[in-house]
Design goal:
With 64 residues, the chain is mostly helical. It is built from 4 helices and no strands.
Length: 64
Amino acid sequence: MAKKKSVKGTWTKAEVTLLKKMFPNNVTTKVAAKLGRPVDNVKKKAYKMGLKKTKKHLKTLGLA
């Protein structure tokens, strides 16, 4: 029997867990590369989940 393919755009539990762990303290491009997803998709998912960058991370980028 063939493996079930996930529906395009569907996020696995493992991907969501990794996003929650990485997004607040890492550059979005790095998170997207790790997940193998486009940066825009990662931004949209993080926004929908209510994830934000930490103030400490933003400060290292010169944004806070």
